[in-house]
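Our preliminary data section would be incomplete without showing what the modeling component actually yields. Below, a chain of 144 amino acids is followed by its predicted structure, encoded as tokens that our downstream tools consume directly.
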Amino acid sequence: MKRRWLLIAGLAVALIASVGTDARAQATRSVELAWDASVSPGVTGYNIYRSEVTGGCVGVPQDPTCVKLNPAPISGLTFTDIGVPVGKAYFYTATAFRNTLESIHSVEVEGNLIPPEPPTNLQIVAVLLAGLGLLLLLLFWRRR
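Predicted structure:
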């Protein structure tokens, strides 16, 4: 994963995203975000934002789908967005926080929760193992 950096007004944030399966249900997934500590002195935390459209949190005005995910600044260097519905791509940004100052949004990263397309050219081959009383079904397909 690429780290993307932003340095504005002395506050710097690098953000990466990875998508993982949420063990609670297959209809939801989680997006794990991680970043390097800011090199700026006095940073007390980070805020994480999610949008349903690219550029949604960095544009002026912000897209209505841009939401801050954490109620208070995060002191650590990771955040997991859990229970994210499958079927969409989401765009995440981070800001560094110092006292009452917040940096502008980092370059966004994408958490793609669109499931892969089903295989094409699916073929089923049945093999009867009469001596063992087994019927094997073999599936063959071509990935897109």
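The chain has one domain: 4-112. Residues 19 and 31 are 5 Å apart (CA to CA). Preliminary results of this kind motivate Aim 1 of the renewal.
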